[in-house]
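Deliverable D5.2: sample structural annotation.
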Amino acid sequence: MAIVRQVITALNRDGTDMLGTRNVAIKLVDESIVSGSLLTVESNHFCILKSRGAVLQVYETGQYPLTTPDKPLVGSIVQGFFGGASPWVYEVIYVNRAKLLVRSTGIATSAEMAEVSYQADYYIHIDTRAAALDLITHMPFTGLVIDTREIADYAGPAIEQAINQVIQVTRLEHINERINELRETVKSHLSDFLQVYGILLNDLKILVLPRDQRMRELIALQAIGLSPVEAVRYYLALQMAERGLLSAPNAAIGAPFSVGSGALGGLRLDTPEPPMTQPAAQASTRPAIVPDGTGGWGTPV
Protein backbone atom coordinates (compact mmCIF):
# COMPACT_ATOMS: atom_id res chain seq x y z
CA MET A 1 0.00 0.00 0.00
CA ALA A 2 1.16 3.52 -0.75
CA ILE A 3 0.52 5.92 2.13
CA VAL A 4 2.54 9.16 2.05
CA ARG A 5 1.56 11.79 4.64
CA GLN A 6 -1.73 9.98 5.22
CA VAL A 7 -2.63 9.98 1.53
CA ILE A 8 -4.13 6.64 0.52
CA THR A 9 -3.91 5.77 -3.17
CA ALA A 10 -3.79 2.78 -5.51
CA LEU A 11 -0.74 4.13 -7.30
CA ASN A 12 2.76 2.94 -6.60
CA ARG A 13 5.55 5.39 -5.85
CA ASP A 14 6.66 5.27 -9.50
CA GLY A 15 3.15 6.19 -10.66
CA THR A 16 2.12 2.75 -11.92
CA ASP A 17 -1.32 1.40 -11.15
CA MET A 18 -1.58 -1.43 -8.63
CA LEU A 19 -4.65 -2.79 -10.39
CA GLY A 20 -3.19 -2.76 -13.90
CA THR A 21 -4.87 -4.90 -16.57
CA ARG A 22 -5.15 -8.15 -14.59
CA ASN A 23 -6.44 -7.24 -11.14
CA VAL A 24 -10.16 -6.68 -10.63
CA ALA A 25 -9.88 -5.57 -6.99
CA ILE A 26 -7.19 -5.10 -4.36
CA LYS A 27 -7.51 -4.73 -0.60
CA LEU A 28 -5.32 -2.37 1.45
CA VAL A 29 -5.15 -2.82 5.22
CA ASP A 30 -3.22 -0.34 7.36
CA GLU A 31 -3.55 0.61 11.01
CA SER A 32 -2.63 4.25 10.27
CA ILE A 33 -5.89 4.88 8.39
CA VAL A 34 -7.81 7.29 10.65
CA SER A 35 -10.16 10.24 10.37
CA GLY A 36 -8.55 13.02 8.35
CA SER A 37 -6.61 10.69 6.03
CA LEU A 38 -6.94 11.65 2.38
CA LEU A 39 -8.34 8.97 0.11
CA THR A 40 -7.49 9.37 -3.59
CA VAL A 41 -9.59 7.56 -6.20
CA GLU A 42 -8.40 7.50 -9.82
CA SER A 43 -10.72 7.89 -12.80
CA ASN A 44 -10.69 4.16 -13.54
CA HIS A 45 -11.33 3.02 -9.96
CA PHE A 46 -14.02 2.69 -7.36
CA CYS A 47 -13.04 2.71 -3.70
CA ILE A 48 -14.87 1.01 -0.81
CA LEU A 49 -14.09 1.73 2.82
CA LYS A 50 -14.86 -1.04 5.31
CA SER A 51 -14.49 -1.38 9.05
CA ARG A 52 -15.08 -4.54 11.06
CA GLY A 53 -16.74 -6.15 8.03
CA ALA A 54 -19.22 -3.30 7.46
CA VAL A 55 -19.16 -1.05 4.42
CA LEU A 56 -18.81 2.57 5.50
CA GLN A 57 -18.74 4.35 2.13
CA VAL A 58 -18.27 3.83 -1.62
CA TYR A 59 -16.26 6.51 -3.41
CA GLU A 60 -15.94 7.47 -7.07
CA THR A 61 -13.23 9.57 -8.73
CA GLY A 62 -11.77 12.30 -6.54
CA GLN A 63 -9.97 12.93 -3.24
CA TYR A 64 -11.84 12.63 0.01
CA PRO A 65 -10.96 13.21 3.67
CA LEU A 66 -11.97 10.12 5.59
CA THR A 67 -14.55 10.46 8.34
CA THR A 68 -14.46 7.20 10.28
CA PRO A 69 -16.28 6.18 13.49
CA ASP A 70 -13.33 7.41 15.61
CA LYS A 71 -14.77 10.96 15.63
CA PRO A 72 -14.21 11.47 19.38
CA LEU A 73 -10.50 11.04 18.66
CA VAL A 74 -9.15 12.93 15.70
CA GLY A 75 -6.50 11.30 13.65
CA SER A 76 -3.50 13.10 15.13
CA ILE A 77 -4.55 12.34 18.71
CA VAL A 78 -5.14 8.69 17.83
CA GLN A 79 -1.70 8.40 16.31
CA GLY A 80 -0.05 9.96 19.35
CA PHE A 81 -2.06 8.14 21.99
CA PHE A 82 -1.80 4.70 20.41
CA GLY A 83 1.75 5.08 19.12
CA GLY A 84 0.72 5.60 15.51
CA ALA A 85 -1.68 2.65 15.42
CA SER A 86 -5.44 3.03 15.38
CA PRO A 87 -7.46 0.76 17.65
CA TRP A 88 -9.80 0.15 14.72
CA VAL A 89 -8.76 -1.71 11.58
CA TYR A 90 -10.03 -0.26 8.33
CA GLU A 91 -9.97 -1.84 4.90
CA VAL A 92 -9.70 0.17 1.71
CA ILE A 93 -10.74 -1.81 -1.37
CA TYR A 94 -10.02 -0.46 -4.83
CA VAL A 95 -12.14 -1.88 -7.65
CA ASN A 96 -11.03 -1.64 -11.27
CA ARG A 97 -13.71 -0.13 -13.50
CA ALA A 98 -11.70 -0.46 -16.73
CA LYS A 99 -12.44 -3.16 -19.32
CA LEU A 100 -10.42 -6.27 -18.61
CA LEU A 101 -9.73 -9.27 -20.82
CA VAL A 102 -10.56 -12.73 -19.44
CA ARG A 103 -9.79 -16.07 -21.09
CA SER A 104 -11.41 -19.41 -20.34
CA THR A 105 -10.41 -22.71 -21.94
CA GLY A 106 -11.74 -26.25 -21.74
CA ILE A 107 -12.65 -29.47 -23.54
CA ALA A 108 -15.98 -30.60 -24.99
CA THR A 109 -17.15 -33.61 -27.02
CA SER A 110 -19.00 -33.61 -30.33
CA ALA A 111 -21.89 -35.85 -31.38
CA GLU A 112 -19.37 -38.57 -32.39
CA MET A 113 -17.68 -38.24 -28.96
CA ALA A 114 -14.68 -36.59 -30.60
CA GLU A 115 -12.85 -34.23 -28.26
CA VAL A 116 -12.59 -30.56 -29.17
CA SER A 117 -10.84 -27.77 -27.30
CA TYR A 118 -12.47 -24.37 -26.94
CA GLN A 119 -11.24 -20.93 -26.01
CA ALA A 120 -13.50 -18.09 -24.89
CA ASP A 121 -12.05 -14.56 -24.80
CA TYR A 122 -14.30 -11.88 -23.34
CA TYR A 123 -14.12 -8.36 -21.88
CA ILE A 124 -15.66 -7.44 -18.55
CA HIS A 125 -16.05 -4.24 -16.56
CA ILE A 126 -17.73 -2.95 -13.40
CA ASP A 127 -19.89 0.05 -14.20
CA THR A 128 -21.51 1.35 -11.00
CA ARG A 129 -20.90 1.66 -7.28
CA ALA A 130 -23.65 -0.88 -6.63
CA ALA A 131 -21.88 -3.31 -8.96
CA ALA A 132 -18.63 -2.81 -7.04
CA LEU A 133 -20.45 -3.74 -3.83
CA ASP A 134 -21.90 -6.83 -5.51
CA LEU A 135 -18.39 -7.89 -6.49
CA ILE A 136 -16.87 -7.77 -3.02
CA THR A 137 -20.04 -9.21 -1.49
CA HIS A 138 -20.37 -12.31 -3.66
CA MET A 139 -16.74 -12.98 -4.62
CA PRO A 140 -14.54 -13.46 -1.56
CA PHE A 141 -10.89 -12.45 -1.36
CA THR A 142 -8.57 -15.43 -1.10
CA GLY A 143 -5.74 -13.01 -0.40
CA LEU A 144 -5.41 -9.31 -1.06
CA VAL A 145 -6.26 -9.48 -4.77
CA ILE A 146 -9.08 -10.64 -7.04
CA ASP A 147 -7.66 -11.07 -10.54
CA THR A 148 -8.97 -12.17 -13.93
CA ARG A 149 -7.86 -15.75 -13.34
CA GLU A 150 -10.29 -16.03 -10.46
CA ILE A 151 -13.04 -14.61 -12.67
CA ALA A 152 -12.21 -17.26 -15.28
CA ASP A 153 -12.36 -19.99 -12.61
CA TYR A 154 -15.77 -18.82 -11.46
CA ALA A 155 -17.16 -18.45 -15.00
CA GLY A 156 -15.61 -21.67 -16.36
CA PRO A 157 -18.49 -24.05 -15.49
CA ALA A 158 -21.09 -21.68 -16.95
CA ILE A 159 -19.16 -21.44 -20.22
CA GLU A 160 -18.60 -25.21 -20.37
CA GLN A 161 -22.30 -25.93 -19.86
CA ALA A 162 -23.34 -23.51 -22.59
CA ILE A 163 -20.78 -24.87 -25.07
CA ASN A 164 -21.69 -28.52 -24.45
CA GLN A 165 -25.34 -27.66 -24.95
CA VAL A 166 -24.59 -27.00 -28.63
CA ILE A 167 -21.52 -29.10 -29.40
CA GLN A 168 -22.74 -32.40 -27.96
CA VAL A 169 -25.52 -32.55 -30.54
CA THR A 170 -23.38 -31.38 -33.47
CA ARG A 171 -21.14 -33.45 -35.71
CA LEU A 172 -17.50 -32.45 -35.75
CA GLU A 173 -17.43 -31.14 -39.31
CA HIS A 174 -20.54 -28.99 -38.73
CA ILE A 175 -19.40 -27.17 -35.59
CA ASN A 176 -18.09 -24.13 -37.46
CA GLU A 177 -21.44 -23.77 -39.22
CA ARG A 178 -23.08 -23.23 -35.81
CA ILE A 179 -20.41 -20.95 -34.35
CA ASN A 180 -22.75 -17.93 -34.26
CA GLU A 181 -25.40 -19.91 -32.42
CA LEU A 182 -22.73 -21.18 -30.06
CA ARG A 183 -21.47 -17.65 -29.40
CA GLU A 184 -24.95 -16.31 -28.61
CA THR A 185 -25.69 -19.23 -26.28
CA VAL A 186 -22.45 -18.73 -24.36
CA LYS A 187 -22.97 -14.97 -24.21
CA SER A 188 -26.45 -15.36 -22.75
CA HIS A 189 -25.38 -17.87 -20.08
CA LEU A 190 -22.20 -16.00 -19.18
CA SER A 191 -23.90 -12.60 -18.97
CA ASP A 192 -26.52 -13.92 -16.54
CA PHE A 193 -23.85 -15.62 -14.45
CA LEU A 194 -21.55 -12.58 -14.15
CA GLN A 195 -24.42 -10.24 -13.37
CA VAL A 196 -24.66 -11.75 -9.88
CA TYR A 197 -21.13 -10.46 -9.21
CA GLY A 198 -21.88 -7.00 -10.59
CA ILE A 199 -19.79 -7.68 -13.70
CA LEU A 200 -20.94 -6.60 -17.15
CA LEU A 201 -20.01 -8.72 -20.15
CA ASN A 202 -18.90 -6.88 -23.28
CA ASP A 203 -17.37 -8.55 -26.32
CA LEU A 204 -17.08 -12.33 -26.60
CA LYS A 205 -15.08 -14.50 -29.01
CA ILE A 206 -15.33 -18.29 -29.24
CA LEU A 207 -12.76 -20.55 -30.92
CA VAL A 208 -13.38 -24.31 -31.23
CA LEU A 209 -10.77 -26.71 -32.64
CA PRO A 210 -10.43 -30.51 -32.74
CA ARG A 211 -7.87 -31.62 -30.17
CA ASP A 212 -6.29 -34.11 -32.60
CA GLN A 213 -4.06 -32.40 -35.18
CA ARG A 214 -4.79 -35.20 -37.64
CA MET A 215 -8.51 -34.51 -37.48
CA ARG A 216 -7.90 -30.79 -38.06
CA GLU A 217 -6.01 -31.51 -41.28
CA LEU A 218 -8.58 -34.02 -42.53
CA ILE A 219 -11.45 -31.59 -41.94
CA ALA A 220 -9.49 -28.84 -43.69
CA LEU A 221 -9.04 -31.10 -46.74
CA GLN A 222 -12.77 -31.85 -46.83
CA ALA A 223 -13.48 -28.12 -46.62
CA ILE A 224 -11.86 -27.59 -50.05
CA GLY A 225 -14.28 -30.05 -51.64
CA LEU A 226 -12.65 -33.46 -51.19
CA SER A 227 -14.68 -36.50 -50.22
CA PRO A 228 -13.78 -38.29 -46.97
CA VAL A 229 -11.88 -41.00 -48.91
CA GLU A 230 -10.05 -38.42 -51.02
CA ALA A 231 -9.19 -36.43 -47.91
CA VAL A 232 -7.58 -39.51 -46.34
CA ARG A 233 -5.61 -40.17 -49.52
CA TYR A 234 -4.34 -36.59 -49.76
CA TYR A 235 -3.47 -36.55 -46.08
CA LEU A 236 -1.47 -39.76 -46.56
CA ALA A 237 0.20 -38.27 -49.63
CA LEU A 238 1.20 -35.14 -47.72
CA GLN A 239 2.70 -37.21 -44.93
CA MET A 240 4.62 -39.33 -47.44
CA ALA A 241 5.83 -36.23 -49.30
CA GLU A 242 7.19 -34.73 -46.07
CA ARG A 243 9.27 -37.89 -45.66
CA GLY A 244 10.56 -37.72 -49.23
CA LEU A 245 8.75 -40.82 -50.54
CA LEU A 246 8.43 -40.89 -54.33
CA SER A 247 5.15 -42.79 -54.16
CA ALA A 248 3.28 -39.81 -52.59
CA PRO A 249 1.45 -38.84 -55.87
CA ASN A 250 0.26 -42.41 -56.29
CA ALA A 251 -1.18 -42.40 -52.77
CA ALA A 252 -3.06 -39.20 -53.60
CA ILE A 253 -4.86 -40.70 -56.61
CA GLY A 254 -5.12 -44.23 -55.19
CA ALA A 255 -2.96 -45.82 -57.92
CA PRO A 256 -0.29 -48.50 -57.44
CA PHE A 257 3.28 -47.31 -57.46
CA SER A 258 5.11 -47.94 -60.73
CA VAL A 259 8.65 -47.55 -61.96
CA GLY A 260 9.64 -46.39 -65.41
CA SER A 261 9.08 -43.60 -67.89
CA GLY A 262 5.92 -41.60 -68.17
CA ALA A 263 4.03 -39.41 -65.80
CA LEU A 264 2.82 -42.17 -63.51
CA GLY A 265 3.11 -45.13 -65.83
CA GLY A 266 5.88 -47.46 -66.78
CA LEU A 267 6.55 -50.90 -65.53
CA ARG A 268 4.19 -51.82 -62.70
CA LEU A 269 5.73 -53.55 -59.75
CA ASP A 270 2.80 -55.93 -59.44
CA THR A 271 3.21 -57.18 -63.07
CA PRO A 272 5.60 -60.13 -63.46
CA GLU A 273 8.60 -59.41 -65.63
CA PRO A 274 8.87 -61.29 -68.93
CA PRO A 275 11.14 -64.36 -68.73
CA MET A 276 14.72 -63.83 -69.73
CA THR A 277 15.45 -65.63 -73.05
CA GLN A 278 18.77 -67.23 -73.75
CA PRO A 279 20.47 -66.37 -77.07
CA ALA A 280 19.98 -69.05 -79.75
CA ALA A 281 22.85 -71.45 -80.19
CA GLN A 282 24.94 -70.78 -83.26
CA ALA A 283 24.59 -73.41 -86.01
CA SER A 284 27.54 -75.78 -86.11
CA THR A 285 29.55 -76.02 -89.32
CA ARG A 286 30.83 -79.51 -88.49
CA PRO A 287 29.19 -82.40 -90.44
CA ALA A 288 26.62 -84.43 -88.54
CA ILE A 289 27.37 -88.12 -87.83
CA VAL A 290 24.41 -90.45 -87.99
CA PRO A 291 24.15 -94.14 -87.03
CA ASP A 292 24.52 -96.61 -89.94
CA GLY A 293 21.92 -99.08 -88.68
CA THR A 294 24.44 -101.79 -87.69
CA GLY A 295 25.08 -100.62 -84.23
CA GLY A 296 27.96 -98.41 -85.30
CA TRP A 297 28.31 -94.92 -86.50
CA GLY A 298 28.24 -94.12 -90.12
CA THR A 299 30.14 -91.60 -92.09
CA PRO A 300 29.56 -87.93 -91.83
CA VAL A 301 26.74 -86.52 -93.91
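Annotation notes: The longest strand covers residues 115-125. The chain is about 30% helix and 30% strand.
The annotation will be released with the project's public dataset once the embargo ends.
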